[in-house]
Amino acid sequence: MNPDDQLTKFRDDIPEMTEAAFHQGKARLQARTGKTPKLWLVAAAVVVVTIGAAALNNRTTTPAAHALYLYLYMDEQQYGTPVPGAQGDLITSTIGGDNVGYWRMWIPSDRTQTWRLSRDVRTGTPDGPLPADPPLPHLVSGLSKWEGTFEAPNGDFFPMKGNWLEPTEAFVNALPRTPTELNEKITNEVLGPPSAVIDAVEAVLAHPAPKDLRTALYAALKTRPEVKETTAKTRDGRPATSYAITDNPADPKNATTHELLADPETGDLIGTRITGFTTQETVIHWTEVNALGATS
Question: How many domains does the chain have?
Answer without folding.
Answer: 2
